[in-house]
């Protein structure tokens, strides 16, 4: 386990050398640019 309580999310995303930073960048990119709905799926239903 790694203690990340002293680091902010922005600091973790800025680090290029970790799998966690890579995953966080992908997550924040996905949240910033939501994709198209999947083949007829409407979440408002």
Outline the secondary-structure elements.
Blueprint: H1 9-14, H2 19-32
Protein model, in words:
There is one protein chain. The protein has 2 helices and no strands. The protein is an all-alpha fold and about 45 residues long. The chain has a domain of about 25 residues.
What distinguishing features does this structure have?
45 residues; mainly alpha
Short description:
The protein is mostly helical. Helix content is 44%, strand content 0%.
Order of helices and strands: HH
From the spread of the alpha carbons, the general shape counts as: elongated
Overall mean pLDDT score? 76
Total strand segments: 0
- Runs in which pLDDT lies below 50 for 5 or more consecutive residues are none
Protein name: FXSXX-COOH protein
InterPro entries: FxSxx-COOH
